[in-house]
Structure prediction request, 196 residues.
Amino acid sequence: MSISLLEKYLPNYCLPYLKEWFANYAIHIKITRGRNSKLGDYRKMPDQSHQITLNSTLQPQLFFFVLTHELAHLLAFDNFGNRISPHGVEWKSTFSKMLSESISVYDEDLKPIILKFLKSPKANFMASPDLVRYFHIEDYEDESSYIEDLEIKDQFTYRKQTYIIEEKRKKNYLCTQLKTDKKYIFKPLARVEKIN
Prediction:
């Protein structure tokens, strides 16, 4: 897929950065339907080309952010070798540099969040509460809440199942599914619907 075909998914003014980062690499971009498990991923292919998949449902700035994350894998492996950790120091410094270079692409209210994030990039988007909150503002104008906003012993539904919050463990929440009595760990920014 050529960079220009990505334009409908991207925010304004980001193509010069992508053209520089793509350079002469053979990169196959696949746009997928929304996946709950991940926003994007990177793979080096057997023929030495590169494949990046991205969710089609991402807002333009988040699409660009995730694409930058995945391209940082490619550039880190290319610059430092294949033996580096996927989300290790080399990837973090590469991703951080790319975010810093392209900061002008992001909206003014998002820039401080990106600048804070790039000081110590996280492997998982969900590990950055500020980013999660920012990108979910428009998506959740319904009755859903973050689990961190609920109290111990509150009941909630998640994916059509009912749970009760048992306790907080460090940052996460231990919950019991009422139907099966099984225990599950929820991240603080899991979107749930509180039962009143």
